[in-house]
Amino acid sequence: MDVTSELYEGTLDCVHCGLCLSDCPTYLDTGRETSSPRGRIYLMRGVAEGQIELGPGVADELHLCLGCRACESVCPSGVRYGALLERAREQLVDAGLRKGQGPRLERLLLRSLLARPARLHAFISAIGIVRALRLDRLARRLLPAALANAQALLPPIPPSPLRAPLPSWTPAVGERRGRVALLEGCVMRELYGAVGRATIAVLTRNGFEVVVPEGQACCGALHAHAGDLSFARSLAERNVVAFTEQGGAPYDAVVTHSAGCGAAMKESGGWLPGRSDGLAALTRDICEWLDESGLVAEPGRLELRVCYDDPCHLVHAQGIADAPRRLLSAIPGLELVPHAGASDCCGAAGTWSLGHPEMSARILDAKLDAIEAASPAVLTSGNPGCLMQLRAGVEARGLAIRVAHPIELLAEAYGMAVPGQR
Ligand code: SF4
Ligand code: SF4
Does the predicted TM-score (pTM) go above 0.70? Predict the structure, then answer.
């Protein structure tokens, strides 16, 4: 970090007002100023000015941050905390401060597994076999802690048809209103194939032809959050080609069904200035796109009491809170019930929960208390990490609450049963 860098300039936007402190989960948990947004910005600035040594203490505080970006939503000075954090973490990697077994394993898994669809598919299949043979307890004892935690968080592995690639083209139903591309995602494809199929079904039912372009890559969000910005840039470059430079006529939108992927694609202009701006401008979350373009097909009745929990990377990173609620409210019979702290982080935060299981559990507990008090039949959220964390929490408490993506409920309201859907 140096005083001429974009990172340093960004830290100067902070006026130290402290308005973000009461929204920061790590500050609330620890009570430490250095674990707050203001404290972390002060550390970044101090390092750039040569007042603070870039060492393990700074690295620990920057990696204790969930990257939830709740601080951005309340900041009166418009500090772009998420971008600062990504760049600061990249510098920790460059300075050799991410060396232990955990960071090495994380980098290896993100680069060599998550971004390689065939390997990820084989890995998830292997987990399915281990579970079917009831060897998961043994695996938990043998695996490194972070991997064991990850294995325990995964939902039931979907049946093979739901893990197959999405169709490359699906025509619009009825009058065609436009043509959109869909980012299939890595975790979404392997663990939430029902959501991908529901997304296509709802889009086509509302007049959109859906293309799933070849050559698309993982969005790079988790790589960027881990400080591996160079790899995130290489993935963004592949997506620029797949979504904006091939496939004939331009798309009306590039739709994502994962809040984390959507935020990464919208912000990829910062990773590849001048190169990814077109892709960033085209990207829409599925709820945002349907809300913006309007539903032309009338949903059927669903007599359900439903809570909607905001994914951080939808509400704080993309500023989208109302669109999913409006869509759910458009379903006749569905009662949308509010719960306290709906826009607070659930404690998943990508791979963060794997390295901080105790704090993650405390954050999740507060969320589950509020959800339990609201007593819904279905809890909805639009991000794979949140869906996994919430499902695991609901199951651990023995609550009779189904956890689903909002688009799954909309698909059900259209009478579209996805085979094998949970
Ligand atoms: S991103 Fe979340 S955890 Fe990190 S400083 Fe901001 S509010 Fe706190
Ligand atoms: S709210 Fe914004 S300006 Fe105020 S301390 Fe937090 S980051 Fe700085």
Answer: yes
User: pLDDT tens across 336-361, in order?
Assistant: 999 999 999 999 998 899 889 999 99
Nearest to 155 by CA among 409, 381, 416: 381
308's tokens: 């909607």
Q: Which residue's C-alpha comes closest to atom 4 of ligand 1?
A: 65
Give nearest CA residue, ligand 1 atom 8. 24
Task: Determine the residue of 20, 43, 66, 73 to mutate for testing ligand 1's pocket, defined as the one with the most ligand atoms within 8 A of the Cβ atom.
Answer: 66
Q: Which atom of ligand 2 is nearest to the CA of 38?
A: 5
Tens of pLDDT along 185-217? 999 999 999 999 999 999 999 999 999 999 999
Same domain, 202 and 123: no
Are 305 and 382 members of one domain? yes
My answer on whether 73 and 15 are in the same domain is yes
- Residue 279 and residue 196: Cα distance in Å, rounded? 20
pLDDT in tens, 149-163: 777 788 999 999 999
User: The CATH number of the domain where 379 resides is what?
Assistant: 3.40.50
Closest residue (by CA) to atom 7 of ligand 1? Answer: 24
Q: How far apart are CA 87 and CA 215, in angstroms?
A: 27
Give the range of the structural domain holding residue 36, as residue numbers without chain letter.
Answer: 6-94
